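Per reviewer request, we include the raw input and output of the structure prediction for the construct analysed in the revised manuscript.
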Amino acid sequence: MRTQERVKARVNAVSAWESLFRAQVAVMRTLAAEFPTRDISFNEYDVLFNLSRQPDRELRLRDLNKHVLLTQPSVSRLVDRLTARGLLSKCPEPSDARGTVIRLTDAGYDMFRRVAVEHMKTITERVGGKLSQDELAQLAGLCDKLRDGA
């Protein structure tokens, strides 16, 4: 690749990243501001969402940290709050006594499903209302490709 082509590729990559990042921030701020309940926070919902997608609705705490946009200490405190409210349970990891498995309780799953229905309406309006069905499919594919390559 020639120097001019490399420069153009860098400029395009940075421009695409800036657009993606700014769009993500704008959409996340809107979704957080329009979050449909005060029963749980947006970040608490994210934890419930991620656990709901796992086999047996459970994950090791260290793996949960990879799925959410919070620091490890913040996730630990958030998990402790959700556990105290009966939405999650914690138990030692069977294969590693130092590890902890986080499980979504039935009450936590019910809370997640109730909030998810309302939250989906906002996502549909804010994201689905701006893009065509083909664009949504293309966006999902591109984002999956970027995530898989990270």
